[in-house]
Write a structure and sequence with these properties.
It contains seven helices and two strands. With 168 residues, the protein is mostly helical. Mean pLDDT is 79; it is low at 1-13 and 15-26. The protein has helices at 6-26, 38-51, 53-71, 77-92, 95-107, 110-121, 123-160; strands at residues 2-5, 163-166. The chain has one domain (2-162). Strands 1-2 form a two-stranded parallel sheet. The longest helix is centred in the C-terminal third of the chain and has 38 residues, at 123-160.
Length: 168
Amino acid sequence: MKRVSLTIILVLLTFSLAITGYSQNQGGIPDPNAPVSPGKAKAIRQLLELTGGLKAGKQMMDQLFPLMKRSSKQVPESVWAEIEKEYATDISLGKLVDMIVPIYNNHLSEEEINELIKFYESPIGKKMASVTPQIATEAMQVGMQWGSDILKRIQQRLKEKGYSVTTD
């Protein structure tokens, strides 16, 4: 019987969905060196702050670290502390924001960004920004369950075809 790693299947499925979704919805990765006017860059940063987009990146990493730690138990806590400190430095220096600004620049005009700022400063916009993290968390949980169900079906299908599927 042939052996197929469930981990490999999960990684391939995840990357496939991510790449497909990104290429269909974003039209490719914008050039991070493309010029962005200072006014537009400032507006984009304000929009990211209002929408909670900056907090979402930190929240994602805060959820990712425990998962990584559980799957890499051989890594000492001191190493994780060092890595988390480096991550915190990236956040404090705004590296993620610097990478996101060209994406917004590529897809939205300064006028559109300013309109979005007006929306997120309104009561309904503030409500949307406040509930988005919970919506994202719940959607991620649903997505993980969906992915798990698909992986189980793939695993069963492979077994039916005579492959031995492992979870390592």
